Amino acid sequence: MATADPKRDGASTTGTEEIGSRSKEVKWYNPELTNIPEAIQEVFEKYSKIPPERVHDHIYKVRERAWDVWPFPCIGGWRFLTLIQHSMPQYSEIVRRLIDGEKYLDLGCGLGQEMRRLIYDGVPSENLYGTDLRPEFLDMGYELFVDRETCHSTFIAADAFSESSELSQLNGTISVIFAGAFFHLFGRKKQLDIARLVTRLLKPTTGSMVLGRQVGSVKPGLYEHGTNPDSNMFRHDGQTWQELWDEVGAETGVKWHVETTLTLVPVADRGLADENLRMLKFCVRRL
């Protein structure tokens, strides 16, 4: 959640003042929490030990505080409660590898929800790293999941584009990087920078991977938005996503195997999307 994309989530694109105002009159703020996905409900009940009847109010109170930190559409629309990684076909492999001692980084982890599901599923928390631009979200994750004393993961507040970022201490040590909704926030030039960062962070061994989900399109290209320091975002289809990794691979001497699926946006969001918008899931493995 390093930045946000209001067009994707149904917001107007009139500028950063509107999204930065913390107004609850905007289209991407939903005042009611009507559904808690089972995969995250289970984490709250069995990992965080919150009684079932208290989960709703607990989430709501933390969400309100998170909105005051920065009003991302994923916070206002409760999207942080939908676990992306858990539903991907690589998930069981990832859990096994991390239990065996490999290391994981959530790039743009927000409140750390994906990491808490991994811990619940048996991954030692010390094998997990999370990073986000805003340290308040990292701290608030402990409050959301009631695990300040038991979670031994490493959280790093960092700007991924800074040459002096503390992320450099992880170079060459990470086996799995999760980028759930990160690349799509930027134009293609910065996406290339992220891919270079991923290349540096991952272990230089066959099978190191980056995976995630992001906004894509059957008509790939640049799309304007109003809350990112970039003036545009690049939405991919499978071919253009492959081309991006081919370009970085040619530059760095690393070969990548790219898998993608392009699907319709969730039913609840279709009224907010143009007819060409899709969700792109990807897994990119080092050969």
Account of the 3D structure:
Keywords: S-adenosyl-L-methionine, Transferase. InterPro entries: Meroterpenoid_MTases, Methyltransf_25, SAM-dependent_MTases_sf. This is Methyltransferase domain-containing protein. Belongs to the class I-like SAM-binding methyltransferase superfamily. GO terms for molecular function: transferase activity. With 287 residues, the chain is α/β, with parallel strands linked by helices. The protein has a single domain, classed as 3-Layer(aba) Sandwich (Rossmann fold). It contains nine helices and nine strands. A seven-stranded mixed sheet has the order 3-2-1-4-5-9-8. Strands 6-7 form a two-stranded antiparallel sheet. A hairpin with a 7-residue loop joins strand 6 and strand 7. The chain is globular and about 55 Å long.
* Content of β-strand: 15-25%
Radius of gyration: 18 Å
Helix residue percentage: 25-40%
Widest sheet, order of strands: 3-2-1-4-5-9-8
CATH homologous superfamily grouping: Vaccinia Virus protein VP39
Order of helices and strands: HHHHHEHEHEEHEEEHEE
Question: What is the CATH topology classification name?
Answer: Rossmann fold
Number of strands: 9
- Tally of separate domains: 1
Please outline the major beta sheet. 7 strands, mixed
Strand-helix topology:
Elements lengths: L15 H5 L17 H10 L4 H18 L3 H4 L14 H9 L4 E4 L5 H8 L7 E5 L2 H11 L8 E4 L18 E3 L9 H14 L7 E9 L3 E4 L7 E4 L2 H15 L3 E8 L13 E10 L1
Parallel strand pairs: 1-2, 1-4, 2-3, 4-5
Antiparallel strand pairs: 5-9, 6-7, 8-9
